[in-house]
Amino acid sequence: MSPQLTLQSPLQLPPSEVQSYLEQLWSNDQPGSTGANTFCLLVWQPAWVEQQLVRTDQIAGPIIGVQRPELIQAARQAVIDVDMPHSTAPLDVTVAAALAQRKGTQHGEDLRGQHVDAAISALQPRRLITLAPTLDEVHELETLVAAYCPLPEEGGGTAACGDVVVLRGDHDALAKGLGILQPLLPAELPSWVWWNGSLDEAPDLLDQLAVPPRRLVIDTALGNPHRCLDLLQTRVKAGQAVNDLNWLRLRTWREHLAMVFDPPQRRNTLHHVVQLDIDVEGNHPVQGLLLAAWIADRLGWLPQSSKRAEGEGIAAEFKRPDGTTVQFRLMPVPMGQPSIHPGQIVGIRLICKPDSQPDHAVCVILCAESGGCMRLEAGGMASMELLEEVVPNQIASVEMDIARLLAGGHNTTTPLLAAAAPLAAKLLS
Amino acid sequence: MSATITNPLRVGLRQERVIAPQCLVIFGASGDLTHRKLVPALFELYKQRRLPSEFALLGCARRPWTDEVFRQKMADALGDKVNKNRLSWDQFAAGLFYEPVDLQKPEDLVKLGHRLEEIDRLRATRSNRTFYLSVSPKFYGSGCKALADAGLLKDPKRSRVVIEKPFGRDYGSAQALNRIVQSCGQENQIFRIDHYLGKETVQNILVMRFANTIFEPIWNRNYISSVQITAAETVGVEERANYYESSGALRDMVQNHLTQMLAITTMEPPGRFDPEAIRNEKAKVLLAARLADESEPWNCCIRGQYAPGGTKEAPLPGYRQEPGVDPISTTETYVAMKLFIDNWRWQGVPFYVRTGKRLAKRLSEVVLTFREAPVHLFDAAGGGPTANQLILRIQPDEGAEFHFEVKSPGSGMRSRPVEMEFSYDESFGEPSDEGYVRLLADAMLGDPTLFTRSDEVEAAWRLYTPLLELIEDSPWQLPIHPYESRTWGPAAADALLANDGLLWRRP
Ligand SMILES: NC(=O)c1ccc[n+]([C@@H]2O[C@H](COP(=O)([O-])OP(=O)(O)OC[C@H]3O[C@@H](n4cnc5c(N)ncnc54)[C@H](OP(=O)(O)O)[C@@H]3O)[C@@H](O)[C@H]2O)c1
Questions:
Q1: CA separation for the pair A70, A78 (Å, rounded)
Q2: What structural domains and CATH numbers belong to chain B?
Q3: Residue B478: which of B238, B256, B306, B250 has the closest Cα?
Q4: A408 and B10 in contact by Cβ < 8 A?
């Protein structure tokens, strides 16, 4: 599905006039109408790497803020050009920072907020508000508005439609611009805030944007791991509905692991795990920790201790409900062609030893289709029953994952994530 | 059977498909089906977090209940299910509303339209609506019409209608009803319920057939010698005498459920897994199906009616003694018949279909019997070798089993049959969805795969038209054979198979 533009070219207005303009827009169209009774989506859309690549002329504009293949390819090339480790995730902020050192004054048209992915526009958002921070040190606030109707083949075609609002400028300008947002979000409709960037940046804006009952969408693969898990944990604890794209990407791993233990004769094995190993891509442990935390929560394990292991890994111990200790080890492994999401899981290994038959040990290994997991397959398991599965690569784009969230919608955090978040944070501390 | 230990890792993994924010409108909200099946199924979906927060259920019927009364009645009906989950229920119940609506009064539907807009604002349900007609079948046509006239079906993407069974009484009335219903909206807005399609094992027949390579090459006349489809109940007519007297087993079970099982078992592989492709193939195979003897249908169909039975301590009344039943009623509570499917795949393979009330056991299954080995090399324990059988169990204990011959232990080369067995509940961490849970979820998702399309319904009615006409015009030619309650039906049904040198499977 190719992203598409708003039908009308947006109108630049002084910030103070945005609200009255939008009100008028709808009542002119149909008296009493306020547009679709759906939801509002606020997006923090820095697209730093894209902006830098356009500025240094390594990719053609316009800047749209969508993870298109050309962008990812150019970013991978940039990682090599600026001499960063090949296992650096291509859209990482460190890549943007390295590119910032390079010369270039190429200017690309900035269409962030005006490109709407078809998967999202089919849901007819009532209002899509994009915050588009710019590279310039000083950039006064610009506000743009446009009415927007999805094409009939995308699920549109009836009267009710939505609009898009773009706030563009430097950090201070955007901070000031936030003042106009509250009246633009009808109280009766659910609002989502999608922080489509690192959780390290602009914490003041994040705090102002993501106030409950707004639902928050974050990606705990982006940003300092401690900060990511802290933020996740605190927000969940405070009762906000938090959706973590990094957690969503665990879906197939969870499904495959559950499948291994579906046959009744294996289910008992699950209560005799003595060792859990998880390999992740590069140096971001959060996804791996969330998976470990989920397993621990489901099986009633309590964390005992946790420490940094050699090779930047994490070693921890859990206690099973029957008092037995479970050894947990998370290891970063370098990847030649890393995923765009830092810290994706490469492999899991579970070793189960029933007390009653200690020589009947079972070893379960799940490997990512893309990576393989030679480390986990090596050594010491010859005497065990070996169950091995390949976990297919995820194909859904970030936009598709967001569309799935918006298509349904919950005003609370899924209990599984809510239970896993504090445990994962504990493993990291 | 040992108690199933659930798989703790399975919990919460069912959210692959997302139900969109919407308002489900149930007409007949004060009726039996709503509190017995629909609301429990919705509450189940809610507890599994498969309903979005932006969800509302609007109950409609004529009686002047309020939102509060409706909530209370539903809570009372669910009893322990509510008491054990108070908190969840209270949250769920906040989304329950009630509006008095008489489907025959246009002004009521206008009022309903306003109420729906109000609920859209209150619950952010995105003007997305599923209308469920759980009212008497006589309102199916006029109900759809009333909804269409009030403009409530005009957005094909955001409104759909679910119609309960039965859909018509015969070919003519089904056609007439289809014409009305189709004039109210597009075919993909109409969801005709068939409860059997909601069953996991019925769906599993599709997966077994088309996700494996080993079955398809043998799934035809070259390897299969006959097929039996059974849906047996142990219960009698219970409180449904009024309805059942005018329906009978043929209309109540065969035309819909058994015919759907037949279609899924025999359809050609669809080009892709999409609702229309599947429904095309089902409709096609039904068009090729016919009674084994259309000109003299009495040769291929047996009707029966349960007579008293049971024990001295626990006697069971016969059908004619049931309250509300005509003492000289000729309504069938049992029917068995033989069909053929005239296409390349199935030419000449007999399909035996039977259903009945007050039979010996409650069970539904499809039994495929394979041809015998061409040469008998070994002595068999039971004389000749037993033909291989694949049995697809729909209920209870959903699963599949395969019967084949192995060597008998000891010296010599005698063979004997054994079973290979797969059971759903035992193999998966969680029990499968109850039929209504699945069907309600699919209707709200707008996925019509498990609902019957107009041409399927019509083809199914057409298949049984010769029988229905005979029952209407000269019932003596299809006599009612009494059978003792809690037995396997009348002897005449056994004779139907004995003529072909076969026996019904006795599970
Ligand atoms: N019960 C089952 O297990 C079952 C199984 C399979 C299929 N079905 C089908 O499901 C449907 C409902 O069955 P049921 O057993 O629930 O029937 P029921 O108990 O007789 O309920 C009928 C409902 O329709 C309402 N009603 C009657 N006239 C109406 C009108 N003019 N406008 C609006 N509402 C009206 C009644 O409420 P008021 O009197 O308050 O209007 C009542 O709530 C039937 O089509 C049946 O064939 C039922």
A1: 12
A2: 22-164 (3.40.50.720), 197-430+452-498 (3.30.360.10)
A3: B250
A4: no
Instruction: Check CB contact under 8 Å for B20 and A407.
Output: yes
Q: Are residues A237 and A255 in the same domain?
A: no
- Stretch A185-208: mean pLDDT: 94
Same domain, A199 and A278: no
What digits encode the pLDDT tens for the residues A214-227? 999 999 999 999 99
Query: What CATH number has the domain bearing residue A275?
Result: 3.30.360
Q: What is the ipTM of this complex?
A: 0.86
Inter-chain CB proximity A262 and B18 less than 8 Å: no
Residues 6+ apart with CB under 8 A from B80: none
CB-based contact B337:B350 (threshold 8 Å):
no
pLDDT digits (tens, 9 = 90+) for A136-191: 989 999 999 988 776 655 554 455 578 899 999 999 999 999 999 989 998 889 99
Which is the catalytic residue, given B257, B376, B403, B481?
Answer: B257
Query: A253 vs chain B: nearest CA distance in angstroms?
Result: 11
> Do residues A227 and A87 share a domain?
yes
Which domain, by its residues, includes A203? 4-245
> What is the number of structural domains in chain A?
2
Cα-to-centroid distance, B25 and ligand 1 (Å): 14
Q: Which of B10, B423, B444 to mutate to test the interface with A (most CBs of A within 10 A)?
A: B10
Q: What is the DSSP string of A258-274?
A: HHHT-SHHHHGGGGGEE
pLDDT at A205: 96
% of chain A at pLDDT higher than 90: 60
Task: Give counts: helices (H), strands (E), chain B.
Answer: 17, 17
pLDDT digits (tens, 9 = 90+) for A43-93: 999 999 999 999 999 999 899 998 889 999 999 999 999 999 888 889 999
Cβ atoms within 10 Å, residue A235 = 19
Closest residue (by CA) to atom 47 of ligand 1? B165
